[in-house]
Predict the 3D structure of the following.
Amino acid sequence: LAEEYVPGRASPTFITIENEKGMLEQIQVNLDEDDFTNPNGSYFNNVGFGDPDYKDDNMLTRNGSIPNTKYIKDLKRNAKRRIVSKSGDCNTQLYRVSSKKKRFMKDVFTTMVDMQWRYTLLAFVASFLVSWLIFAVMWWFISYVHGDYLIENINNSTFIPCILANKNFASAFLFSVETQHTIGYGSRQTTEECPDGIILQCVQSIVGVIIQACMAGIVFAKLSRPKSRTKTVVFSKSAVVTQRNGQLFLLFRVGNVRSSHLLEAHVRAQLIQKVVTEEGENIFFHQQELKVGTQMDGGEDRTLLLWPVTVGHLIDKDSPLWKLSPKDLLNSNFEIVVTLEGSIESTGNTTQARSSFLPNEVLWGYRFDNLVSYAKKQGVYAIDCSAINRVVPDNTPRMSAYRVQEIKKKKISSATFRSVSHQQLSLVGLNTNAAAKKISLQSWNSLKRDPAVPAARQRYSVPARSYSVSQIHSLPELLDEEGVGRLGGPLAEGGVQGTEDAHLHRM
């Protein structure tokens, strides 16, 4: 990513292109203000006007006033979709499941709750219509066997039928509906002449209660599902990589747009990518847990969603992003799936909201802008939900966390060596006046630039001043058995006198 920032704009302008290797890459486009306000013909592809035989199959064509969108449809069809969409839907489909229908029918309640609304309502209506029709046939058959539909019995005032005011199948169907729902209009009723009718009436009453309980429970469970609660939990469209206290963090935002809170809310993140083991095994779509949290160090995954919070992942040695630079990140093929789980305050049901980030949705060198302020006039803390996706550029180094750590180690080791060298020289009585320091520093730099001096001797060579062997022999830990300095070559038997022409002495 380019480090330049276009002045006068809220954020740099980036475009995502596909390089020669087929990987996605972001390129910053430097645009002036006039590029948007004063467009001209050079911004359009006019090559077709110069060559009459030129034809671009990728350009949209028109059939009269109707544009041909086949190219766009083919592009969407061939594009690889993400595993978890921004709305939280999982793009997965099960195939070749043995005895799938049988397994689903054993858990019919969950199956009906998971069905789409049109199928649930269809099953709701069909369950009542079918039960009414089946019991109507039974009532009609009992009346037919008893002879209730014979003309002579209908005209006989002393004949007692099984069902009063039952003249045909329509009458039997109406009686079935009245019996199952205990309507009781008062005109139709069973008599003691048919024991079969008494038993059937008891059975239909029980079956009707069961159907009502099941269907009402399914509809209620579908209406009160916590899945709909996830529509009011929003994630940021992009994640950012920024530096906090000298360490790189992967950050994203999540917020609750309802006034009712999510209890015991906690966040998780998983990185899905292809992994190859040392034995050469290819593990496709491997899920690796990322340690995320809402604290400054990336710990503690539980959060209190009073306002949209920033969730961070510390990019350390245990992180899969440890050695990824901005360029490597864009060339990577992975998906970060993030989830927020919590209990709904009003119902107590547990809900889970999901989202995901692709490599081209991770912005390196940005941080999220503040969205909480105090409204003094209203006396409340105002939360600008439109700023949940707002990012601002910062001075994050455009290098991997591993590279940043190596640079820090080199600086620390260099500072430690200089400190130890000064301590050793002070022990042997080195005169540290200003002139000696200046001459010694010049000799020290000349030794470092001399290619003839081995690296091991350069490391332990120090600037010297005038001192005697007796002073150095007072430090036995710096000499070995032969009187040779542990940090360099043998010492002269006589005193060693440092001059301005020879300021280096090997201890």
